Amino acid sequence: MDSELPLYFEVAVAAPVPQSLTYAPPAGVVAPLPPGHRLLVPLGRRQVTGYLLACVTSPPPSPPGREAGSAEADRPNKWGKIRPALALLDPEPLFPAAMVPFFRWIAEYYHHPIGEVIQCALPAGLNRRSARVVELTPAGALALAPLLESGKNTTPPNATQTQPPRSATRTKDAPAGGQQEENPAWLAELLAKGRLSPTLSARIIRQRRSPLPHWQKQGWIRLDSLLCRESIRIKTETVITPVSTGGTPDDIAGQLKPAEAKTLALLHELAGDNPQGVPRRELLKKYPGAARALSGLLARHLVRSREQRRYRDPFGDAPPFFPKPAALSTEQEEVLARLRPALAAKAYAPFLLHGITGSGKTEIYLRAAEEVLAQGRQVLVLVPEIALATQLEGHFCSRFGNAVALLHSGLSGGQRFDQWSLLLKGEARIAIGARSAIFAPLADPGLIIVDEEHDPAYKQEDGLRYNARDLALLRGLQQQATVILGSATPAVSSYYQAEKGKFRLLTMTRRVEDRPLPTVQVVDLKEVKTVSGFPPLFSPQLVRALKENLAAGQQSLVFLNRRGFANLMLCKDCGRPVQCEHCQVSLTLHKKAGVLLCHHCGYRRPRETVCPHCRSGSLVAAGFGTERLEDELRRHFPAARLARLDQDTTRDRKQFMAVLKAVRDRQVDILVGTQMITKGHHFPAVTLVGIVWADAGLGIPDFKAAERTFQLLTQVTGRAGREELPGRVIVQTLQADHYSVALAQAHDYRTLYEKEIALRRRLNFPPFGRLINLRFDGEQEERVRDIALQLGRLAGEGGDRRVSVLGPAPAPLSRLKGRYRWQLLLKGGEVKPLHRLCRRLLAEFARLPGASTVKLSLDVDPENML
User: Fold this and answer.
1) Are the C-beta atoms of 475 and 445 separated by less than 8 Å?
2) By three-state DSSP, how is residue 167 classified?
3) Pair 704, 771: CB distance under 8 Å
4) The Cα angle at residue 517 between residues 558 and 361, in degrees rounded to 5
5) Which fold has domain 8-128?
């Protein structure tokens, strides 16, 4: 770039601004910078973090109609001037330049501000911005202090009141000038500290009945702007290195105090294995007395100290070790033979690897990664859940050691930042993680693996609603990488693309060493007679099979995709369930914790409660979950060693790894769990799988319900008989004749695919059509309904015939987290008309009266219709 030409920065700001903005360079920056740097930039009256996308010499013009001083006026035009960035926040970029087109595509396709796309991609805690904080004035300290003692009203006695104080609930149309029922909980903090935190200040400012406007008018508080710093930092440590003096250690030791001599000798011993120096913390672990001795050694110039970056360990306990197999199966060799030319070509090549459970897909991933690393390129491995990441990381760490970095939400902010940095610098060349790992800062990925590619967990369900599986294909295309989508039960849409030639199909139909697939027995619970007339929790067939397996010294899995003890509490008197106060769902009983819990918003009530409808105390638990299964199994088999694997028992990685290790070490006879136990895990001694309620997902209002039921049953079935002994599966169901259950019993994916693809062709559902779900939510039910109906009418007016408008209608979960929900579904066979209508509706929504009280969220290619 010509140094005499003016320099402008194209910046994506971490704010809900749909387009990038243009800034002049900050003071002291005269040369172009590579994309990926963070900047502190002005946005209106605020200061926010911006991400450098490009350096240009002629900034793009702004559309007319923007006033100077607005956020959009940061672009140069005849109404406003270019403002300079305030500061360069990092000496090096935080993401490679090759990812800028990736971010631009995501922002356009998912209709999401590009700055917020990048903010979502980066490790949390790297956002610097200005925020308003509430500060107490001297006059406010005098005026508000009496309220802390009275605790009755937040309007001081000497204030001019527009209405009398109230002890009752405010009427709907009463002004929010300053009266409240009682003093707020944060008043004590304000009086004690003189200032509230930015987070608390923001929450109080947003409150509809906040007393702050009245207090500010009286001069008791002021709202100041504070620049918030990042919440994560680079961690450093002191490293000690011995200095060579030319003398022998014994000569030097005679001149030193005993502690100094001991410290120096230990330092020489440890430094022999690490010529770069010894971390001070390791030295003090060996000899605590070195803390005081080091100052004398430093003064004598016998040692040197320096600061170096310390990377936080993401693993905790080391992952299990898996040896490399001596030989591959015939099918594995055939698959690798087809993969190698694509890996060597260094060009985009998408593959769908359809391999039955136990066929050895993981070894294919490892061998392909070896080929790519030998070329000097990088590898990205995606798994649907953190639980599955622990299994794959063991395989990859066993093969590639320190070349592996982890990226998932189970890490602390500091750990995730450190792993990101290792990948960015190239010190780690393999990234493994859940869906957010799709944003790993790899400059040149040669291989992208999406394991269990069918799993809906790859779809982010809030904020930026991206699908990591789809983005893996996009990233492979943009960065010329081989992409492997692997699954024993591929998504119907993926298999369709393979049939059409968009993906190259790789098939593995036999287990390693030709071990047989487990035999599957379906038990129709309607035919099991009980005294109560209700289906049993465990059929006689399952109880008998568990007893036989225990007698044989083999392990069993019992699966139910529902946690808790009972999924609802019913009132005996009025017959109504106890529901969440914020969501339209029943509370789940967690017996051990003694609470009724909402699995959507976290609301809880004590177990000993009364019916909120009739105030009766006669409540009875109904339904079942994994906690109840564990209790019942302990009654049936008191001598058996049981473990449970679900979100309630494995809150962190350490607990999860401990359960898996116990199963592998044969310290567990029966493992009870949710879908956490269904995918990817290899339990050599498990020969029996019991599925308690196979058709649980068939009642969900979703066109993928049958496909997902088949996938779940096939995946959990695949945990049985993976070593020498054959496996068997007992499937309990109330819909034994449903094709998804019958085909899972027969291990028949192909017929399932043919049935599903025929249904979707008739209904024009994916892969034949595209969907965009517009979701409306707000605190006022009438306002949400009115806005949804208005936008629905606008969608139908002058619309494209290629786009169908379904709804609007209340969402299946019509109230969630205290907000009422409606949705409008757009369906079309072509992408461009669908997104064109979507952009028009977004613009129309912003102009609707009352739209500011309703949140509109776009879900492109939705996975969850609830």
Assistant:
1) yes
2) coil
3) no
4) 95
5) GIY-YIG endonuclease (3.40.1440)
Can you state the percent helix, strand and coil of the chain, rounding each to 5?
35, 25, 40
Q: Rounded to whole angstroms, how far apart are CA atoms 368 and 357? A: 19
**Structure token digits, residue 14:** 């971490």
The dihedral through the CA atoms of 355, 357, 358, 364 has a sign that is positive
Q: What is the pLDDT of residue 730?
A: 96
SS3 sequence, 634-665? HHHCCCCCEEEECCCCCCCHHHHHHHHHHHHC
Write the secondary structure of 749-766 as one string of H (helix), E (strand) and C (coil): HHHHHHHHHHHHHHHCCC
pLDDT at site 198: 82
Q: Give the total residue count for the chain.
A: 866
Q: Both tokens of residue 560?
A: 């139910």
Half-sphere exposure (CA, 13 Å, Cβ side) for 576?
13
Decide: helix, strand or coil at residue 198. Answer: helix
Distance, CA of 561 to CA of 694 (rounded, Å): 9
Mark 590-607 as b/e (b = at least 16 C-beta within 10 Å): bbeeebbbbbbbebbbeb
Residue extents of the structural domains in the chain: 8-128, 236-309, 330-512, 519-563+626-748, 566-623, 770-860
Q: In whole angstroms, what is the distance from residue 186 CA to residue 207 CA?
A: 13
Q: Are the CB atoms for 630 and 558 separated by under 8 Å?
A: no
Q: Which amino acid is at 784?
A: V
CATH class of domain segment(s) 770-860: alpha beta
Q: Copy the structure tokens of residue 481.
A: 């990488």
d(CA 653, CA 658): 8
The domain 519-563+626-748 is placed in CATH, from the list 3.40.50.300, 3.10.180.10, 3.20.20.70, 3.30.70.560, at 3.40.50.300
The CA-based angle 328-331-334, given to 5 degrees, is: 95
CATH topology classification for 330-512: Rossmann fold (3.40.50)
SS3 of residue 570 by DSSP: strand
Q: What is the rounded CA–CA span in Å between residue 838 and residue 827?
A: 11
> By the 8 A CB rule, do 167 and 140 touch?
no
Q: Which portions of the chain are predicted below pLDDT 50?
A: 64-80, 152-181
Rounded Cα distance between 333 and 407, Å, is: 31
The predicted pLDDT at position 426 comes to 93
pLDDT at 251: 61
The helix/strand/coil state of 220 is coil
Same CATH topology for 8-128 and 519-563+626-748? no
pLDDT at position 267: 87
Query: What pLDDT score does 132 carry?
Result: 81
Q: Distance (Å, rounded) from C-alpha 53 to C-alpha 608?
A: 57
> How far is residue 824's CA from residue 334's CA, in Å, rounded to a whole number?
47
**Burial of residue 515 (number of CB atoms within 10 Å: 0-12, 13-18, 19+):** middle
> Which of 582, 583, 584, 579 lies closest to 596 in space, CA to CA?
579
**Residue 80 in contact with residue 68, Cβ under 8 Å?**
yes
Distance CA 242, CA 268 (A): 7
Cβ–Cβ < 8 Å for 804, 792: no
Coil vs helix vs strand at 803: strand
Cα distance between residue 338 and residue 353, in whole Å = 11
Question: Tokens 């995709």 identify what position?
Answer: 561
> Strand order in 303-309's β-sheet?
278-279, 236-242, 303-309
User: How would you classify the pairing of strands 588-590 and 595-597?
Assistant: antiparallel
227 alpha-carbon distance from chain centroid: 28
How deeply is 308 buried, as exposed, middle or buried, from its count of CB atoms within 10 A (0-12, 13-18, 19+)?
A: exposed
Residues 6+ apart with CB under 8 A from 105: 474, 478
Tokens of 450: 């999406």
Which residues, listed in sequence order, are joined to residue 10 by a DSSP beta bridge? 22, 54
441 Cβ partners below 8 Å, 6+ apart?
A: 94, 95, 96, 99, 420, 423, 424
